[in-house]
Amino acid sequence: MSFFHLRACTLSRQYISHEHGFHQLILATSGSTELSIEGRGEVVTGERGCLIPTTYHHEYQGDGLNRTLVLDVPLASLSALSCVDEVDRLFARPRFFTVTPKLHRLADTLMKQVEDYPELQSEIAALILRAIYLELHDERLPADIVDPRAGWRSRERLDLSRIDAHIDAHLADDIRVESLASLCALSPGHFHACFRDATGMTPLGYVQRRRLDHARSMVLHTGLALSQVASLVGFRDQGSFSRAYRRRFEVPPTAERRALN
Predict the structure, then answer these.
(1) I need a surface site. Which of 35, 39, 204, 210 has the fewest CB within 10 A?
(2) Architecture in CATH of 160-258
(3) pTM for this one?
(4) Do strands 16-18 and 40-44 pair parallel, antiparallel, or not at all (unpaired)?
């Protein structure tokens, strides 16, 4: 019986925004993924991991080149685990944490084992959680502890017109938080916090909304095929574009265009 769902994967460039009813660990061995939890954002890399407790809303967008271990810990399985206290402590709050060289080597070694022996995912997952607990249980670095609901954000002036112009000029491109932060001479982490304060949105969510607002204008005022519209605003295919459009405007683009006739 498997208590966990552990998988090795590549997180794509598609923007994802959701929450779920289980704890989740994100641990990369290569590449990077921009990820935010309730507005607090960092970049998950081989040197930086993330623990996401159940029900916390989060957004992410990978670079399409990463290799990432994603571990889901269903709450229903916790009572059957011998390490339940350790798991509870690990997921007591959202946390971005430093991945030591020793922990990175372990993750890199286990990546192949996960792929070759999926039937051993519970044993491998327990080993990973135990290793992270041993690395972190005495850690008291406030910068690594995230409690977004406690109100920690700082404020700083942002040049939103410059940011909007950059987004509009690169709608079809891969827009990263690092490039937006550089426009304001801020680190990605500081920029993320300031941006959320200024707009009430995360940078990833803001870019997604602006893409879709431009897309709606094209749907309503041009004869471009929906596949062309999707490509022009940075979506990899028409299906993902239509789903995002419907979530944003509560109507699919085909129906909105049809209503004009």
Answers:
(1) 210
(2) Orthogonal Bundle (1.10)
(3) 0.72
(4) unpaired
